[in-house]
Every structure is written in structure tokens, then in C-alpha cells.
Structures
1.
Amino acid sequence: MTRPLIIVGASGHLRDLTFILESRPSEWDVAGVLDDNPDLHGKLCAGAVVLGDVRTWPSYADHWMLVAIGSPRVRRR
């Protein structure tokens, strides 16, 4: 059974993580990405659709979450 996963952050770190997750397709189902850049909303990034802002995470409370933000300053914010 696969576990639904939301990835937070649609930058270079996302590409690295999706590459790793693709090696375990029976374990994780990437449901989408959350990112604060409105230009990315609704678009595909590394094979996953950007669902909306990070603030919408409570809508996905039944999913696992993985933070793919490489910058410590942005991650802290």
C-alpha cells in the first residue's frame, strides 16, 4: 500500500527528492507540491503538480509531508 505524500518546496531540492522517491514507487504516492510562488500553482514541477501555497497544508493533514526547502532561512520562515 502506498502512502500519500505532499512535498513542501518546488525548487532544486524537489528534483533530488522525487528522483529518490521514484526508486520506491510502491511505498510513496506523491500527491503534489506546496510552494508559495503563485506562478507555479497548477503547473508540474519534477513530475508533480503544485497544488498551492504552503499555508494550505492543513487541507492535506491526512498526507505525509516532506520538506524540500534547502535554504535554512526560507525553511525557518
Note: The first strand starts at residue 3 and ends at 8.
2.
Amino acid sequence: MEIKRFGNPAGRSVMLLHGNLMCWRQFEDVIPLLEKDYDVYAVSFDGFDGTGTTTYTTAQAQAEKLADYLRAELHGRLDLLFAESLGCGPAVLLKSSPRVEIGRVILSGPEYLDYGALNGLILRIMRIMPPKQYRTARDKTMPAWALRFMGQTEEGMRTMLSRVPDHISLESVRATWEVGLTLYRADFPVQPEAQVACWYGEKEGHMEKAIQKLRQAYPKLTVRCFPGFGHGDIINHPALLAQGITEFLG
């Protein structure tokens, strides 16, 4: 895991967790808009830090490492956690951890992909998918089926794909598929006062049930749909993203 720090040490703390195949560089365009006012921490998970020496395993493992970091560097306290797609797994686990205090959380594109007892069958049927996604990471091109699944376009993915780190392993990609299928399987404690927002693009699917599940854990959940956006599209609009973060922090 790699964590880059930017901005104003006296400002409120903001941590950014990237989506699948990405790294901290997914946030390169929004960091300059945040760093004047905030103490910004941009994360690259294990397997996506570009070193070729780490492997992504579970969301829980990433959450534990982030908790260790927050306790060591920020006295266990973070003002805002922004998580994109894959990052939502560690985010919800970190929010429920008794080891740290997270003021507010934005979950961007936390799609519901859990098919319960069918997950094992789906993983077997879809065993060809991780290698296909691995080729996406290697070639930095997104196939048409993946664009349709995400409600995205080639243009919408161009900038993000340019920031895919080198040296991603097939083992890491396989692990992220398993994480995606079990994101909502953990028994998250109900947190009645938690300040959590769910953001998603109008064109991405798998969100209705995700919102239902999230409301069970976060009764005060706020939901924001971005018209015309696909999965991850908010990253392509850094001014809007920075504005939304500022507004949610209050």
C-alpha cells in the first residue's frame, strides 16, 4: 500500500480511495482543487501501488492497514473518506472499525453485485473475466462489454485508463472480483448517526439494492445521482467532485 500526502496540514483531513485497476493517480485532477484547504491523503491499495511486489487480497486487509496508518499519522481521526467503486469495500469496513473515528464518508458507485449462494457458481462461470480485466490493465483499453456494463464510453474512460499503474498482477484482479461479489455480505453494525453519502451515475446499474443495503447500516444515508454519468464518471469532473466534497463536509 502507498499513501501520498498533499495540501494544507492545518486543514481538515480528506482521504481518497481509488477504484478497480486504478491507483492514487486516479485523483490527480481533483487533488489540486482540494489541497489549498484540506490535508489530502491519496491511497494506492496493495496490488495497485505500481511496485509489482504487493498483491490485493481482501477489503478487510486494506481496511486494517488504513486503520494502522490513521492511528499512527492522524491520531485515529479522519474528517472525510471518499471511496470510488472498489474503494467502497475498505471504506465501509473502516467506518465500522472501533479503532478509528471517521467523520463523514462518501461512497461513489458502490454497486450491488452480491448474488448470495450463487456467487460461487458465478465465479466459476465468469472465470474468464479476471483475465480479460487483467488485459485491460495491461493494454489500458476497455472492451465494449465492459463499457456497457459500466454505462461508460471510451472517451469517459480514456483519462482513467491512462492512470492504471504498471505491474498489476492477475492474482490481484481475481481478488477484486471476489471482493465485489461479497461487498454487502459483512454484518455491518447499524450506525444511526453516521454521516454517509452514496453517489452514483444515472447510467450505472446495480444501485437500487445497494442503496437499500446501505440504508440498513446508515439510516441517515444521503443519496445523490449524477444525470448522464456512468460508473466512475465523477472522477472526470474534478471541479464538481471537489465542490461536492466541500459541500458534504459543510
Note: The chain has a mean pLDDT of 91.
